[in-house]
Write a structure and sequence with these properties.
It is a single chain. This protein has 2 domains: about 1-110 and about 235-295, FAD/NAD(P)-binding domain (3-Layer(bba) Sandwich); about 115-230, FAD/NAD(P)-binding domain. About 25% of the residues lie in helices and about 30% in strands. The protein is built from 7 helices and 17 strands. The strands form 4 sheets. Strands 1, 2, 3, 4, 5, 6 and 17 form a 7-stranded mixed sheet that branches. Strands 8-15-9-10-11 form a 5-stranded parallel sheet. It is elongated. The structure holds flavin-adenine dinucleotide. The site of flavin-adenine dinucleotide has 38 residues, from helix 1, helix 4 and helix 7.
């Protein structure tokens, strides 16, 4: 059986596209390798998504998005898409659980964190060192080091500071690069300290703690904590799926250089990564896909 639409990724972009397509009568199949909701699971407080005047926690918004998907009866398979192949006039979507054939594929796989490139980072990965707040196994009364100085680093610090011992944000720049609202909230939090001009040199583990050695204008400095979180930027996951290497999006649109292959959300947005943009982009892609399925042409 060749399906009409397969969506790869169930973050905000994939979810909004799936809900639209389901409502107009095309039953998309959504592949999600992890949990429904995507990166939004990490957000401390989303205050810029319309409809929630008091703001809403990332996990609460994800719960609502998931409920919406369920209420529409969207089909989800929890499996990682490893390859998208074009053959016999349609696509074959490859996962470890088998192949699915589809006329249209929409890629909404978002971004992945960049590594900090600090000696010792690899050895601590998955035990004492993480790249997303939701991966940290325990939080209560634990101490944290966050490496980075942008919105994500400050959002993570505010999130972790609830119930934590102390949180140290370590940043090599002279000032943070986050929005001023987050900066003010961090300044007011009694258990968060921001350390500027502090360059991370090496990581190690001793006596059940992570040790971070740094260089500062005043000399060497060492931090210790239960866990370290790296927030040094993100990059598109586009090249993680085989078959997409030579494909690119057309301008800022949801179409790509391959007919029938669409893209939406953070995976294509560059520096502007927001839930509202991902949701709008997902709907835009879904409308183009519906046109294509109806009339056989891309808009
Ligand atoms: C700490 C933090 C705070 C934030 N706060 C805000 C905020 O306050 N306001 C705001 O507007 N935005 C915020 N954002 C940004 C927002 O979360 C993202 O812009 C949004 O989640 C992007 O949606 P997306 O669907 O494009 O991608 P993602 O949310 O990244 O979803 C992609 C999905 O695809 C899945 N996937 C990836 N590869 C595969 C594969 N090969 N096979 C199957 N599935 C795959 C992933 O598991 C994931 O579920 C925040 C982000 C972070 C990190």
């Amino acid at each position: 059986m060749v399906r009409d639409v397969v969506i790869v990724g169930a973050g905000p972009a994939g979810i909004s596209a799936a809900v639209y397509l389901q409502r107009v009568g095309y039953s998309p199949l959504v592949f999600e390798k992890d949990r429904v909701g995507g990166l939004l699971m990490n957000a401390n407080l989303v205050e810029n998504y319309p409809g929630f005047p008091e703001g809403i926690g990332g996990t609460e918004l994800v719960d609502l998005f998931s409920e919406h998907l369920k209420s529409q009866g969207v089909e989800i398979k929890h499996s990682e898409v490893t390859e998208v192949k074009q053959e016999k006039g349609h696509f074959t979507v490859v996962t470890p659980d088998g192949d699915t054939e589809s006329r249209i594929v929409l890629i909404t796989i978002g971004t992945k964190p960049k590594e900090a490139g600090i000696p010792g980072e690899n050895e601590l990965k998955g035990t004492r060192l993480f790249y997303e707040v939701r991966e940290i196994p325990e939080r209560d009364e634990k101490d944290f080091i966050i490496i980075g100085g942008g919105d994500a680093a400050f959002d993570y610090a505010l999130n972790l500071s609830k119930g934590a011992g102390k949180v140290d944000i370590v940043c090599r720049s002279t000032s943070p690069s986050c929005i001023s609202l987050l900066k003010e909230r961090v300044q007011q939090a009694p258990n968060i300290t921001f350390h500027k001009e502090t360059s991370s040199e090496s990581l190690s583990e001793a006596d059940g703690k992570v040790k971070l050695s740094c260089k500062t204008p005043e000399g060497e400095k060492e931090f210790d904590a239960d866990y370290v979180l790296i927030a040094c930027g993100r990059e598109s996951r586009w090249l993680d799926v085989k078959g997409l290497e030579s494909v690119s999006s057309i301008g800022n649109m949801t179409r790509t250089t391959v007919r029938g292959l669409f893209v939406a959300g953070d995976v294509k947005q560059g520096d502007h990564r927001q839930v509202g943009i991902a949701v709008g982009d997902g709907v835009q892609a879904a409308m183009s896909i519906a046109d294509y399925l109806e009339r056989g042409e891309e808009k």
